[in-house]
Amino acid sequence: MLIKWLPFIILLTVLFQAEAQTITAANCSATAVQNAVNAATVDGTTVNIPPGTCTWTTSVAVTTKANLTILGAGSQSITGGNDQTVILDNLSSSGPAALSITLGSGKTLRFSGVTVQAGTRTITDNGSLKFYCHNTPGELRIDHIHMLNLGTGMETSDCFGVVDHSLFDEPSPSVRNSTHINNGAYNGDATGRGHGSWAANTDFGTAKFMYFEDNTFNGGAANDCTFGGRNVFRHNLLHETALQTHPTGSSPDQRGCRAWEAYNNTFDTLNSFNNSYGMYNAYFVSSGTGLIYNNTAPTGYQIFMTLHSMRRDNTSYTQTATPAGWGYCGTSFNGTGSAWDQNTNGSTGYGCTDQPGRGKGDLIVGMMPNAVNSTTGTISWLHQALEPIYEWGNTWAAIPGFPYPRVQNSSSDVLNQDRDYYIGTSSFTGTSGVGSGLVSARPAACKPSVAYWATDENTLYQCTAANTWTNYYTPYPYPHPLAQGSGGSGGGTPATPPTALQAVVH
Fold first, then answer.
1. Which of 283, 318, 353 is the endpoint of a domain?
2. Which domain holds residue 221?
3. Distance of CA 235 to CAs 182, 213, 214, 483, Å?
């Protein structure tokens, strides 16, 4: 019987091998890369970009036609790829990204082994690399790349996957962002402003995030997360830099970061930084819900994490009143509040839409000034769930002369500890904060919304009702499935077998 099937198996193997493509660009120029990617039409194709340094003055914009690997000559065993295929970005600061890749419907992409460096381009928010996806888990892997002095180096839009073993270099100190993450079109949101992401479940511990792991970030800000963005930073080295969220209200229609996780990262300020002053914080939180735990920031940070409700005043952004904008949260700033907020207290506006500790709510449809709550048909509170932020197990030491707490609440009139956020405590009794230890040491009695990290189960439990513990979160597998293999440096987006094979069984 096995002998009878051998010709069929051999035929399938030959046909699969025949379907696979390897395309090598003529060189690393914009034209050559554009032509090579355009020619990739078969799932499983690899486009190789040769070593060399090429100056780009025109943008490359492609929509992939296949499950594709784009592979520069950078090393697959060195974080950042050791600069073998180098693109110098000489595009105008007001122009498009040097390379914009849109994944074809149902397609996957791996992008690896390329260095992108600022040439004559000045600081810009446009980014040098942009990836546009379909909010499909496992669709994108970016690895072993090096981004150097680019302002905004890379942006992922509506992508779920992983960025791993890459190096991001920005000047320090500066406010440049190494990465931008957004999920503006989540759940088919036609506005692209993140409303669909805010109307969906949070989904901690799942593939429905953009993961950043085993990377090194130097200087600037490691990330910015906006338009309903969902991101996880884990097992990274962050030197003289910080993580952050972007708030709702920075411009009309724009929603803030939806959900985030940050764990097992190391923050430090090296020897070149002025450690007598240090950096302000390791994580700046102004939007959404998140989990931040088991990070290390032993020196150089005045505060470990800060919390901000940024529509309370115009310190950072001036708000436009409804219906043309979000308006200020509460009446205490300029006498006029916003119908978008819960307004249980008219003066403060609590709960403010999308503030830290808020999660899933009603869907907004339309663009301002015509945007409305789809449930009520009017500008009204979105019935956002209270989804507290949980912080625990982080190692941090104050800088002498800066007597701040580990977690600093900068908006204490609308953000309350043990309601909107919970912080780790070594003397956990089940009534306040977040505990940690063996599951057998977890108190039997608990107050709703406190949490407990079971170290032996790698699981966070939440008290969902009086004296009732419920599994709340288990981390997504590490390394990310797309980054597994060869010590975390191999793997990648798997090729999809061809679907149009015809086999003849003799």
1. 318
2. 2-318
3. 21, 5, 5, 13
